[in-house]
Write a structure and sequence with these properties.
This protein is α+β, with helices and mostly antiparallel strands. The chain is built from 4 helices and 20 strands. The chain folds into 4 domains: 89 residues, conserved putative lor/sdh protein from methanococcus maripaludis s2 fold, CATH 2.40.420; 95 residues, Efflux pump adaptor protein, beta barrel domain (Elongation Factor Tu (Ef-tu), domain 3, Beta Barrel), CATH 2.40.30; 53 residues, Beta Barrel (OB fold (Dihydrolipoamide Acetyltransferase, E2P)), CATH 2.40.50.100; 76 residues, Helix Hairpins.
């Protein structure tokens, strides 16, 4: 064999082994499949909502104050107890009021007896006047005395009624049905009429959620209200799955000129007492329903300097980064204007390890529920 042929064979073997080594090195550095969680883009009916942060308010709140001055004899409820309208809450010592009533009734009886006597005298002098036995001035004097005594009886009857009412005020009852607050006083304390707070009763079934929206959306809300009642969904922070549905019942008559916001209220049945006065709640005012909206799970939508995007899983189990146009977010789902097609799978978890063209291993595929969310 000639040296030239041997050199060619050696060169060919070197090229073959070099190519094989490079192939193994490239295979060795190929990225492994990234485990991800995926969701599916679907078309479904979605609500068009106005989102706002609101505050839960009692349907009615009444501060219980004493209507008579006296000493608290007993408390008949526990703090935070559910009470019905008319339930006894506090008792004042009735002894002073009972004595006052007895005195008033005694004065009334005395004046009524005097009135009967005066009327009898007036009738007798009227008879004598007809017979010409007395002068008209004597007759008129007895008539005036009877009329004056009649007014005195009225005054004493009113005083007896007031004493009777004060005795009733010794029993302080719940003005509405609801839940009581803390004790404002304890047994033994002396309270003054129309002064101080004994407790507060809040009606929480039903309950209000108060929130505000920009004035630019007021015209649309009023137009929708004329067509049909508007539904409001309330959720508490961290408890988004426990949503409650209510109805918009109040639109304030004035826009706040400083903030450009207008206040609204929604009423909720709240039979289970889930919403509590003073809580912050997320309110979603539903204006209408968008038919066949393009929806993906909200975690699938990511944001970069260029805008929103999603990772779409292709048929060969690799991903492609695709820009999308976000319309709005509705709870755990996002409505897209464009960017994906119904049925395409999008990555919902594992984005940080992904790049364009990376292979993925899907652990779970979550599909959006059909119909309204």
């Amino acid at each position: 064999m000639k040296k030239k042929d041997l050199f060619r064979i050696v060169l060919l073997l070197v090229i073959v082994f070099s190519a094989a080594g490079c192939g193994r090195q490239e295979a060795k550095h190929a990225p492994p499949a990234v485990p991800v969680t995926a969701g599916e883009a679907v078309r479904k009916d979605m609500p068009v909502q106005i989102q706002a942060v609101g505050v839960v308010e009692a349907y009615r709140s009444v501060t219980v104050v004493p209507q008579a001055t006296g000493q608290v004899a007993a408390v008949h409820f526990r703090e935070g107890q559910e009470v019905r309208k008319g339930d006894l809450l506090f008792s004042l010592d009735p002894a002073p009021f009972q004595e006052e009533l007895r005195q008033a009734e005694a004065r009334l009886a005395k004046e009524e007896a005097q009135l009967e006597n005066n009327r009898a005298e007036a009738r007798r002098y009227a008879f004598l006047l007809e017979k010409g036995a007395v002068s008209r001035s004597d007759y008129e004097r007895y008539q005036t005395t009877a009329t004056t005594q009649s007014q005195t009886v009225r005054d004493n009857r009113a005083a007896a009624g007031k004493a009777r009412l004060n005795l009733q005020y010794c029993s302080i009852r719940a003005p509405i049905a609801g839940k009581t607050g803390t004790y404002g006083v304890n047994p033994g304390a002396v309270v003054s009429a129309n002064t101080g707070t004994l407790t507060t009763v809040n009606q929480i079934r039903p309950v209000y959620v108060r929130f505000s929206i920009p004035e630019s959306q007021l015209a649309d809300v009023r137009r929708r209200m004329r067509q049909s009642p508007l539904k409001v969904t309330a959720t508490l922070p961290g408890k988004e799955k426990d949503a409650r549905e209510g109805v918009l019942v109040f639109v304030d008559n004035t826009v706040d000129p400083d903030s450009g916001m207008i206040r609204l209220k929604a009423e909720f049945a709240n039979q289970d007492g889930f919403l509590w006065p003073g809580q912050f709640a997320n309110a979603a005012l539903e204006l209408t329903i968008q038919k066949n909206a393009l929806v993906v799970p909200s975690p699938a939508v990511q944001k970069s300097q260029e805008g929103h995007y999603v990772f779409v899983i292709r048929q060969d189990k690799t991903v492609v980064q695709r820009p999308v146009t976000v319309d709005r977010a509705v709870g755990p789902e996002t409505v897209l204007a464009k960017g994906v097609e119904p049925g395409e799978k999008v990555v919902t978890d594992g984005h940080l390890k992904l790049r364009e063209g990376f292979p993925v291993e899907t652990k779970e595929v979550k599909k959006a529920t059909a119909g309204k969310p």
